[in-house]
Specification:
Arc Repressor Mutant, subunit A, mainly alpha, globular, 5% strand, 3 strands, single chain, three-stranded antiparallel beta sheet
Length: 182
């Protein structure tokens, strides 16, 4: 799936084995961290009975305001079908409401209900306390450098992810690895 991205990068730059090794180590560390963050998020938000995906959607709506399913899918790096399935339980529990989209009749707007906004605030407060502990051990410069490195990797991978999501959407699958990122 990522072959065309890798080929275009290789065509522009001769690969440096040490840099490739370091990038591989970084990818492994990111995967481990993602798994740990998923576990921490599940434990941290167990009282609100939120999945990691639901937590992400609540925060995306809190930060971005009312959004369509396609807008949320792009923001979350997931398929529309996956986002719609993840929003269903939130709407059923009264955390998300649907509004008419004046710009597009068939594409409703998802918005946090007052209960959903309160849940998002609780999520942010708990995560804020956790990030205070992280910040106490991680110098700002290191956090900024890590963020920049991850952004650079994401820029290389973005075209491949977009192509994979488009292929899943076109096939109607919406259940592959890319869909699980929401």
């Amino acid at each position: 799936m990522f072959d065309h991205v890798v080929s275009s990068v290789e065509a522009r730059h001769a690969p440096d084995p040490a840099a490739m090794y370091a990038a591989g180590n970084l990818a492994t560390a990111v995967r481990r961290l993602a798994e740990r963050l998923d576990t921490v998020a599940r434990d941290l938000h167990a009282g609100d009975d939120l999945t990691v995906s639901e937590r992400g959607l609540l925060l995306a709506l809190r930060q971005g305001g009312e959004q369509t399913i396609p807008q949320l899918a792009v923001r979350r790096g997931a398929t529309r079908q996956y986002v719609q399935q993840a929003l269903g339980p939130l709407a059923a529990r009264g955390l998300v409401e649907w509004r008419v989209n004046p710009r597009h009749r068939r594409s409703r707007l998802a918005v946090l209900s007052p209960t959903g906004a309160a849940a998002a605030r609780r999520v942010m407060a708990r995560e804020g306390r956790l990030m205070e502990r992280v910040a106490a051990t991680l110098p700002r410069e290191q956090a900024l450098a890590a963020t920049a490195a991850l952004a650079a990797i994401e820029m290389v991978l973005a075209p491949a992810l977009a192509a994979a999501l488009a292929a899943e959407t076109a096939s109607g699958a919406g259940t592959g690895a890319a869909a699980t990122r929401a």
